Amino acid sequence: MSKRVITAVIALMLFIPIVGIGSWPLEVLMGLAALLGQTEFIQMNKLKVGSFPSILTGSGALAIVFSERLQPVMGEQVIAKIILLAAVLLLAYSIRQSKLKISQIGILTLMMTYIGIGFHSFVALRDLDLTVLVLVLIVIWVTDSGAFLIGREWGKNKLAPTISPNKTIEGAVGGTGVATLVSAVYLVFFPLFNSYLLSLGFTVLVSAAGQLGDLIESKIKREHEVKDSGNLLPGHGGILDRFDSLLLVLNVLFLIGLL
Q1: CA separation for the pair 240, 225 (Å, rounded)
Q2: What is the largest CA-CA distance in the chain?
Q3: What's the pTM?
Q4: pLDDT in the model for residue 236
């Protein structure tokens, strides 16, 4: 059995029960994922893991995941306060540490926010409705598999040749189509909205956002000249490699106010 398959089996054996349980065990797992994801990005930027920017933004991503629990201490708009506090402290730190550029502060704060809100939203979506979370995961997985198979068979027109040369427009459209068909069956048993068509539209949004999230992660890795975001998961890369599609989807759901 390949290293990739063994890693996937072990990860699923741990991941599925914790998602089923939800509550604080899932919160802890997502907090750990956020911390590790931000650490991967720190390493891609050639910064030391034990440096102040690493510790601060890693803690910030973790704090965003636990923002609901921090509300009694920090009051309203906890996430906004965490982001602003991290940015201000990094700006102040850069005065004494001239090697830390303002552009680095911007990207570190941006990724802290993106990663933190993504994993925070995973917990929020699980608390909202497990069947919706399952639908999102199914759509992302089916889209990815469908796009690969259809693209390999019929793909001719490159989707983003400078970022991910193997992806095609035919594969992207086909992946979304297959995911929508699978979701159409799922939604019969687990309705999402009062309108069935609106529910299908939701799956299209998730599918498209997931593919865009994959491309964003590919662009980040290309710009930092790395093959994988990390090596935590043998055969799969790092946390950001495995959650690339899901992170953008969850940020979009947070943005539109679903969570």
Answers
A1: 15
A2: 60
A3: 0.91
A4: 62
Q: What share of the chain is helix, strand, coil (3-state, %, to 5)?
A: 75, 5, 20
Give tens-digit pLDDT for 212-249.
Answer: 999 999 999 999 888 888 776 666 678 999 899 999 99
Contacts of 171 (CB under 8 A, 6+ apart): 146, 147, 148, 150, 151, 152, 154, 155, 159
DSSP conformational letter for 151: H
Nearest alpha-carbon partner for 111 in 200, 12, 34, 28: 34
Q: What pLDDT does residue 97 have?
A: 79
- φ/ψ of 19, rounded to 5, equals -65, -40
- Low-confidence stretches of the chain (pLDDT < 50) are none
Specify the residue for token string 């989707």: 159
In order of 145, 183, 236, 238, the CA distances from 165 in angstroms are: 17, 28, 19, 21
Each domain of the chain, given as residue ranges in start order, spans 1-128, 130-225
Helical (H) or strand (E) element with 172? helix 169-189
d(CA 129, CA 137): 13
Mark 93-121 as b/e (b = at least 16 C-beta within 10 Å). Answer: ebeeeeebeeebbeebbebbbbbbbbbbb
d(CA 89, CA 60): 11
Inter-residue contact 50 to 249 (CB < 8 Å): no
193 C-beta neighbours (distance < 10 Å), count? 12
Which two tokens mark 166? 């193997």
